[in-house]
Amino acid sequence: MKGKNTLLHQYELFVDHNKLILAIILAVIILLFPFVIGSQYLLTVSVKIGSYVILAMGLNILTGYTGLVSLGHAGFVAIGAYTTSLLTVRYNVNFFIALLAGITLAGIVGILLGMPTLRVSGTYLSIITLGFGEIIKMIAMNWNAVTNGTLGIKNIPKPSIGGFSFTVSNYGLYYLMIFFVIVVSCFCLALVRSKTGRALMAIRTDELAATMMGINVTRYKILAFSLSAIFCALGGGLYATLIGYIDPNTFNFDVSTMILSIVILGGMGTLRGMFIGAIILIALPEVSRFLMEYRFVLYGVILVVMMRFRPQGILGWRSTMPFKLSKHVQNELNDTDLIHQTHVGELAYE
Amino acid sequence: MRKSNIAILLAASITVGMLAGCAGHAPESGSGSGSSGGETIKIAVAAPMTGDNSEYGIGFYNAALLKAEEWNQKGGVLGKQIEIVQYDDKNTSEEATTVAQKIVSEKDIVGVIGHFASGVCMTAAPIYQENKIIEISPSSSHPDYSSIGNFIFRNNTIISKEGAASIDIAINDLGKKNIGIISIMTDWGTNTSSIIKDLISKTDAKVVAHEEVMEGSDDYTPAITKLNEAGADVVICCGMYNLVAPVAKQYKQINPDIKIVGFSNSYSQQLIELGGDAVNGVCFPVIFFSESDNEDVKAYVKSFTEKYGNAPSALTSQAYDSVGILLTAIEEAGTTDSEAVREKIAAMDYKGVTGDTKFDEKGDVDKSFIKVTIKDGKFVKLD
Amino acid sequence: MLIQQVFNGLALGMGYALIAVGYSLVFGILRLVNFSHGAIYAFGAEMAMLTISLKFGVLPGILAAMILTGVLGIVIDKVALEPLRKKKSPQIASLITTIGISNIITNLLIVFIGSEKRNFQPIFSQTTVTIGNISISMTQIMMCIVSLLLMSVLMIIVFKTKIGLAMRACEQNPKAANMMGINVNFVISFTFFLAGISATIAGALVSGYYQIVYPNMGFMAGLKAFAAAVLGGIGSLPGALLGGLIVGVSESMAATFLGSTYRDSLAFIILIMVLIIRPHGLFGRKGITKV
User: Fold this and answer.
1) Cα(B168)–Cα(B29) distance, rounded to whole angstroms?
2) Is there a single domain that holds both residue B185 and residue B216?
């Protein structure tokens, strides 16, 4: 085993040994954050970061794990945001039901968009998704009767349950966002460790080999598209309620590249990376206001420099810890007494 | 494996840096006064400072600086110097929400001059209203904007009044009856064109065709061809100077006799620079005209031109007066308490470069229009 | 009206074709979609505006802008893309790098020149030729002539010169070309130079046509030109020309018969249809996936 004495290894060992304490400390910090800070502005930024974490996790399923690069995820965000907002504003549907409708619709559209992946691959796929994103924007712009065209949807209500309204000022929206981020993270974690997750990663590594191993590549690709669309729609719905106003220009190409940049900056195929990526890219324009117009230049520079020097992303390291099989698999192996023959070594997953 | 160490350090340091920066409440660049130190009265200018339409935001900021400087030379307000702080909303609603949250979190900001587009104003306004911060928009024209709350004002006429003035030019001054409308596909353009259509239907003139065009494509010939085939003899152009100028150019290649009518937001030197000969004869109503004979206006135009090298546009001047209104109200109220200042603004009769300003109960103003046209590359009054 | 719109569309399409050529050249040799090409096009147009305003005359001005933009293309390749090739980074890395570069160029233009639309003085005389009830402006005619001329020059370079031979060799197999003594990196840089030059000519022609120039002009035009390149078969020069014309004319038709608001979506619908039905375009060669 190489790298036994590196900082990374020590860090990972430390985390592994103190899991519980670290988790409690982190939970306390996150839960008490609004009370310590108390500034609406910082809370708004935090909630914004939270929604981008969800968006990035959505794209990560597709780009990070399955290896399909999408340049049009703003389209899914738009579907989620528009469906949720329209149902709540026009028909007074409860936010959570509307959100469910939004992610369902996005999931279906995701399946439809996933179909062409049967025919094209690589760069061509990215371009189809780019076209998809732009077309969704055009539909939002031109379908006046439903989307209200360029005037957008105003006064999107904050979510509420039984009379309690989740706003920024009563910290409700912050905790709601934390809740959703945790749910999505847990789902992603479970997905990665499941058979499906391994199948997706096999497709990323070598599609042909995956097919040979009996993985139904088409089915898994469409599944990845659909899951990715669902999470992006979820993030979109939450984002819309935070901002309170959406119009077609909210979901332009910049949003798609923004989500992709978060995934890349943080580290494709990692969960931790999504957090750090979103924090950096969302907070950067806020912190660097003194840079004025140069901050957009800086944003481009980040992409170029990352690709040049650290394409795996800031947190895209290979774990130095020995690979652990999931409990479920371990039990099965125990049952068949195979565990002793399995070589547990450097099989690290990213 | 040393790379991973660097990565962790990098990640950690960036995160800490970000959080520290976030929490630091670092005020932004651009102090309005020459003097530093001591207590200041802060006024925020929130508008697009970068990206598209940044020329308007920078215009607002420049005008505000000029006004603040004038006051500071006289000793400021309430014995304190005035400081103008700029906030960039990139003219998008999502940025505006964040910016508005930031402004209300800053506590010591007395009032906000800004937000440029109506849609953006209307996203930010509820936040100001909720936190009792005075917002005066120099440019918002949407009918629903000022009714958001009693802390929300504007130093711009409501679009239906301006639209009526534009139609008046088309029908009465130019004597045309077949009106074509070309509008830009933004919230402002869509809204304005529908109001214009409504107003025209009440007159004896008629709308022969209405074409919408997208931002980001410069080829307006298909739309123009359709307007021309429909027999329009005057075109009302719902867009800013960057729509009016190319439309004028492309239209005059097809029909050199066409008359074009715009709105006050096309009153900018850039219209002439961009449009050249083609914009000669373009007419529009404004509430501020830099060639006016009024002494105050002359002095203002002179000092603005000296400082920034170009004549102020209509919206810039409206921002200049908006700052004046806010400062006068603070002085009259003798405090920066927003309730007291708000009452003074509501009761004020302010004589500025954009005419007399008197707010009605909603926070709207009614001003008389000057009809302006372009003759030989210069803005002149329409006879 | 129909024929008139066809002519308008042809002029528009020539502009797209000239931008599309840049995508095709780079894609042909690197299998890389150069997302920064739209920004390069805007850069070329802005530079042409600045150099023409220096009063050395229109032609020297455009020539200077061409060289500047060509050099920009080389710089992009040397600074950002060549290191990635050396590291044998995956395609996605290069793709994202070009998105980043596009961001940098556009925003630097905004910082130094300003985001507002500016006047671009007309290059050709403003007269119009009227045949029946169709009026064609001199600019439109000249746009077509210059585009065809440039296209022929590019074809000659690619198919008749030594460097063109090298380009085609690199396109087929860079490794083998390298062994045959071809300096692959030089050839790639030369390709970026050519792409920059054609983008500047496109920028100057289109800006001269609309008499407008601004830093964000490359975004939509770039995407549409890209659709044109894919439609014609990316990597093929005649394909880029044909694709550009098809996109231009159909866009003009859509604007007339469906309304101007639908014109932008049309290019993308064409793009998606082509990719699903015939992924290698009209003229493109079918790629063989090697195992």
Assistant:
1) 44
2) yes
Domain layout of chain C by residue ranges: 2-277
Q: C89, exposed or middle or buried, with CB in 10 Å at 0-12, 13-18, 19+?
A: middle
Touching C: A residues 49-78, CB under 8 Å: 69
Strands B378-381 and C118-119: unpaired
pTM given for the model: 0.84
* DSSP character string of A49-114: HHHHHHHHHHHIIIIIIS----S-HHHHHHHHHHHHHHHHHHH---HHHHHHHHHHHHHHHHHHHH
CB B275 within 8 A of CB B248: yes
CATH number at residue B183: 3.40.50.2300
- B2 vs A: CB within 8 A: yes
Structural domain range at position B242: 160-286
Chains that contact B by 3+ CB pairs under 8 Å? A, C
Q: Answer whether C97 sits within 8 Å of A308, measured CB to CB.
A: yes
Q: Do B51 and C110 touch (CB under 8 A)?
A: yes
Q: Determine the Cα–Cα distance for residues B254 and B142; give it in Å rounded to an integer.
A: 33
Chains that touch A (3 or more CB pairs under 8 A): B, C
A-proximal residues of C, 25-84, CB under 8 Å: 31-33, 80, 83-84
Contact C162, C182 (CB under 8 A): no
**Contact between residue B144 and residue B121 where contact means Cβ atoms under 8 Å apart:** no
Q: Of all residues in chain B, what percent carry a pLDDT higher than 70?
A: 90
Calculate Rg over the CA atoms of chain C. 19
pLDDT of residue A293 exceeding 70? no
Buried b (16+ CB within 10 A) or exposed e, B319-330: bbbbbbbbbbbb
- Cα distances (Å, whole numbers) of residue A155 to A241, B103, B125, B306: 9, 20, 11, 44
Nearest to A230 by CA among A115, A88, A62: A62
| Domains in chain B, number | 2
Report the candidate in B190, B50, B254 with the shortest Cα–Cα distance to residue A290: B50
The predicted pLDDT at position B292 comes to: 79
Q: Under CATH, to which class is C2-277 assigned? A: mainly alpha
| Number of Cβ pairs < 8 A linking chain B and chain C | 87
Q: Which residues contact residue C152 at a Cβ distance below 8 angstroms, ignoring those fewer than 6 apart?
A: none
Phi, psi of B232 (to 5 degrees): -70, 135
Cα(B127)–Cα(B125) distance, integer angstroms: 5
Half-sphere exposure of B122 (CA within 13 A, CB side): 23
Same domain, B130 and B237: no
Alpha-helical regions (H) of chain A:
7-17, 19-37, 40-59, 73-91, 95-114, 122-142, 144-147, 172-193, 195-205, 207-212, 217-243, 253-266, 272-287, 294-309, 327-336
- For C103-131, the pLDDT digits (tens) are 899 989 988 887 788 888 877 777 777 77
Average pLDDT, chain C: 85
Helices B93-105 and B118-130, packing angle to 10 deg: 30
In a domain, B383, yes or no: no
- Are the beta carbons of A211 and A81 closer than 8 angstroms? no
Q: Residue for token digits 């797209």? A: C16
Q: How confident is the model at residue B31 (pLDDT cuts 50, 70, 90)?
A: very low
In a 3-state reduction of DSSP, which class is residue B300? helix
Gap between the Cα atoms of C226 and C19, Å rounded: 8
- Note whether B51 and B147 are same-domain residues: yes
3-state secondary structure (DSSP) of residue B366: coil
Give the alpha-carbon dihedral of B287, B289, B290, B291, to 10 degrees. -160
User: Which 8-state DSSP code applies to residue A144?
Assistant: H
- Sign of the Cα torsion B197, B201, B205, B208 reads positive
Q: What is the mean pLDDT of residues B264-270?
A: 84
Distance between CA atoms of C121 and A44, rounded to whole angstroms? 47
